[in-house]
Amino acid sequence: MNQVVIAACIVMGVLASSAAAAQDYRKGDLYVRDPWTRATPPGAKNAAGYLEIRNSGKAPDRLVGASTPNAERVELHTMVHEGDVMRMREVQKFEVPAGQRITLRPGGQHLMIVGLKKPLAMDEHIPLRLRFERAGEIQVELRVQSADSRKPQH
């Protein structure tokens, strides 16, 4: 009997840890998936944050801001072509259409974490508060991955 209980506890622990590793967050109709960032070198003042936002509702929402205690501020950025050059531009919001998703990723829309208080080290978890126009605030954690990461790693 004890072996069965121990085996069940192990299975439950594995399931719980894999769910936590996926780093998915939900509030109302919004589902935030795989928030991550990259490790930064010593002296770096900025970093970028990435994640996916799904809206399963019938009404659109907007990401209108973000903050973290690990930096002075967090800005919403997009990339735009100016001639042959790609440039970052700060925007006031990211639209999250009803029944759709948006993905913040390298080379596209992203969160610019400005004025880091210390470098980001691999495997750290950085608290991040997302502010939505309709859903309100969602507290997530950015998982710090290797400096050369191109996509979220589980």
Describe the structure using short key phrases.
single chain, 154 residues, mainly beta, Immunoglobulin-like, 1 helix, 53% strand
Walkthrough of the structure:
There is one protein chain. The protein has 154 residues and is mostly beta strands. It is built from one helix and eleven strands, in the order αβββββββββββ. It has one helix at 2-22, and strands at residues 24-27, 30-38, 46-55, 61-67, 71-82, 85-91, 94-96, 101-104, 110-116, 125-132, 136-145. The protein is globular. Residues 4-21 have low confidence and may be disordered.
Shape summary: globular
Main pleated sheet: 11 strands, mixed
| Helix count from the secondary structure assignment | 1
The pLDDT mean sits at: 88
Classify the secondary structure makeup into a structural class: mainly beta
CATH architecture: Sandwich
CATH fold label: Immunoglobulin-like
Q: What fraction of the residues are assigned to beta strands by DSSP? A: over 45%
Q: Compute the separation of the termini in Å.
A: 34 Å
Highest CATH level, the class? Mainly Beta
